[in-house]
Specification:
Layout lengths: L1 E2 L21 E11 L2 E3 L7 H8 L3 E4 L3 E4 L4 H10 L5 E5 L4 E3 L2 H9 L9 E3 L2 E3 L5 E5 L9 H19 L29 E2 L1 H7 L7
Parallel strand pairs: 2-4, 2-5, 2-6, 6-10
Antiparallel strand pairs: 1-11, 2-3, 7-8, 9-10
This protein binds zinc ion (2 copies).
One zinc ion binds next to helix 4.
């Protein structure tokens, strides 16, 4: 297990991570999503710019809130975020966004004892272009009914995961890795250390990781 935020043993070996001349910007977008008559506003963004910049080699700035009217389909929301015209956009909302399950996911779900339904949709905490420059996250599924600091950390973990996708990383089977994701699993990777990756993802992402 390697950590980007804390460096540890890998730090001296990866000094080349500093050899970039320009630090890319990520715009953090407070996103208001209007679904039907409901307005799903954005969570408190305080702390996230500093925390993201401590993990990834990016500058993060919070921009003006952006309002969209959409269904709760995460791809639609992501599309709207891309249309907002920011360079690298990471949008935060509280909306209960969902994705349609793929054929493969549906088969897996049935194998696990589920029942087949037409057009299954499941809630997701985030969605990102991979690779790309747009991502959206919500604290709706994992942030309700828990103390604020836990909700904050869970959302940060999702942001770090989705940014990893933007940088081209795929999902991971390793539960200890920040790229772990299994949308059909009953057990989620919750409250694990943030900015920690398996060897493979550490190597893949290391030019993006801030090693101090
Ligand atoms: Zn993922
Ligand atoms: Zn991994």
């Amino acid at each position: 297990m390697r950590t980007g935020a804390m460096g540890l043993a890998g730090a001296l070996l990866h000094r080349n991570a500093f050899c970039f001349d320009a630090t890319p910007y990520v715009s953090l977008i407070p996103l208001e999503v209007h679904i039907g008559k409901d307005l799903w506003s954005y969570p408190n963004l305080e702390g996230f710019p500093e925390e993201l910049s401590a993990i990834y080699r990016v500058k993060v700035e919070v921009v003006e809130p952006y309002s969209i009217t959409s269904g709760n389909d995460a791809s639609e929301v992501l599309h709207a975020v891309r249309e907002a015209g920011y360079g690298h956009a990471l949008a935060l909302t509280r909306a209960p966004i969902k994705v349609k399950l793929s054929e493969e996911d549906i088969k897996k779900r049935i194998a696990e004892g589920g029942t087949e339904l037409e057009g299954w949709r499941i809630g997701v905490s985030g969605l990102a272009e991979s690779p790309g420059t747009a991502a959206v996250v919500t604290d709706y599924w994992r942030g309700r009914g828990v103390p604020k600091d836990i909700a904050h950390n869970r959302l940060l973990e999702v942001m770090v995961h989705e940014l990893g996708h933007n940088f081209g990383a795929d999902d991971c089977d390793d539960r200890g890795c920040n790229m772990h994701s299994n949308p059909t699993a009953k057990v989620r990777r919750l409250d694990a250390p943030i900015g920690v990756y398996c060897e493979r993802h550490y190597d893949f992402l290391r030019d993006w990781l801030r090693i101090v």
